[in-house]
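quick one, 197 residues, struct below
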Amino acid sequence: MKTHSLKALKIICLLWISASAFAAPLSSVISQTYELAEPDGLQEIYDRVKAADWEKAFTQNPVRDMSAFQPFHLPLTTETRTRYHIPWYTLDIDLADHHGKVVYPKGFRFNPLDYITMPTRLVVFPENQIDSLREHFKPHDMLILSQGDVFEAMKKLRKPVFILDKRLAERFGLQVSPSIIRQSGTTLQIDEIEAVL
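---
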């Protein structure tokens, strides 16, 4: 019994030595090597970030002055009224199914509200009307700024505020602000609220 366990131990040791020899990395120098001439790319980024005058960068080009933060301007509402709008959409491409068969051709016109339900109301407003509109805001409204500083609006409302763009204004048939948009069946109901001057 002892001989068998001694033989087994020898075989295990031999296998272990063989395996570790193959597992060891094979490396050899076959020619002269040199240090890299280029600086470390990551270190260059760190150095430039450290050297930048961030205060100057943000005061000379404040984020709020960038065009992406400028809302599409709508005139102020002069009277309270309700309008209705159908947001017709015309396909500019063919829509095909998973087999490649065209289901809806380019030029097909449809009302998205026949197929979907808006999950919330949209409230489009200028920043200077926030105080007069507070009673109209509901907790789940999507707030969209049509004029003013979006950062100031978010600070005053303590909620996310989005920026109105021209495409959205056209899609929803917006003419003036403040306006509250909600779905009414397969149409949009637009309640225009007289602005407080």
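DSSP finds six helices and ten strands in the chain.
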